[in-house]
Structure formats: structure tokens, C-alpha cells
Amino acid sequence: MTTEDTPFLLVGLGNPGPRYAGNRHNVGFMVLDLLAGRLGARYKGHRSGCDVAEGRLGGVRVVLAKPRSYMNVSGGPVVGAARFYKIPPARTVVVHDELDLPYGAIRLKSGGGEGGHNGLRSITSSTGTRDYLRVRFGVGRPPGRMDPAAYVLKDFSGAERKELEFFVDRAADAAEAVVTTGLEAAQNTFHAL
């Protein structure tokens, strides 16, 4: 299989189940669900431990994956899906919430640290590398002295929900751009916004 034939693995981070569905920590799932809708694809349970959907974004083959495990142990299912589809870390795009960005800001990068994000830490530990692509969705810092772990496990506020659909759509556009135009071109487009 040549590199051009190798699909991209788009991973959305979140926690499974309805209890967590509206949490800030689940924005990765929200973005992946929107992308699945664009593909007209349905998620199916996969032996990797992820729910997967397949299709093409802008002519590029993609595999969408949402780990069925909790966020802090998502690395195993992500590696399982990557191995099954023979996708290297350089063609893996992880969509996740980011405390260090203001609400709605989208930033794209390759590699780097985990910034205390347990989902990223699990993926890095399981893959043995930090060299995967990231779509960082800003959720802002918690108010006052609120524990960041408690903050990300709360639903978006009423005010935030008014703009959430727009920001999720933009994050999906950014993930699609990383796949279709490459990281640098996508950064030039979305970091300017």
C-alpha cells in the first residue's frame, strides 16, 4: 500500500455514554459525529474497541474512530484501529478539547506535549510517539478555583451552547482541511480566524 492509498485515521476523544455526551471533554466526539454525517456514514462497533465509520473527505479515504473506552485509557483502542487499518501516527488526526485555548479557538499541530490531557497521554503512551496530528478545540480555563478535571466533565454552559454548533462545524472543517490540504495549509487558513 502506497502512502497515497493509506487512509487517514481521525480520532475523536470523549467518554462513552449519554451521561457524558454534552461535556466539554466530549467535543472530539461531537466533531467526529458531524464528520460522519458529512460522509453519510454510520458508526459500527469494531474489534479495536472503537466505533468506526469509513468514507472519503475531499476524495481522501478516512477512517473515523471514537474509542468506546474512557478517555484516560483511549490509547489502546486507537492503536488497535491504527494497526487494523495499517495507518501510521503521521496520518492520525486526534480531535480533542484544550483548556489552554479560549472557547471556540481551533489550533492545529503535529506532535508536542500532552498538556495534562489524559486522553493524549494515553495515546502517546500506547503509540510510543507524540508525532500524530492534533485538532485542538478550545474550551477555556475553569472559572475561579474550579478543578480543571471537574470543569471538562461539565456540560457546555447555556451561553457556550449558543455558539457550539458553529465551532464544532469549524473544527470539522479544520480536520477535513488537515486531511485534504495538509497541516501547513490548514494552519494558514484556521489560525488566521
Automatic annotation (TrEMBL):
Function description: Catalyzes the release of premature peptidyl moieties from peptidyl-tRNA molecules trapped in stalled 50S ribosomal subunits, and thus maintains levels of free tRNAs and 50S ribosomes. Hydrolyzes ribosome-free peptidyl-tRNAs (with 1 or more amino acids incorporated), which drop off the ribosome during protein synthesis, or as a result of ribosome stalling.
UniProt family annotation: Belongs to the PTH family.
UniProt-annotated binding residues for tRNA: 20, 70, 72, 118
Keywords linked to the UniProt accession: Cytoplasm, Hydrolase, RNA-binding, tRNA-binding
Protein name: Peptidyl-tRNA hydrolase
UniProt site positions, description: Stabilizes the basic form of H active site to accept a proton: 97
Oligomeric and partner information: Monomer.
Chief location: cytoplasm
Assigned EC number: 3.1.1.29
Keyword Acetylation: no
Record-linked InterPro entries: Pept_tRNA_hydro, Pept_tRNA_hydro_CS, Pept_tRNA_hydro_sf
Taxonomic source organism: Actinoalloteichus caeruleus DSM 43889
Site (Discriminates between blocked and unblocked aminoacyl-tRNA): 15
Keyword Cytoplasm: yes
Location of the protein in the cell: Cytoplasm
Gene Ontology MF terms: hydrolase activity
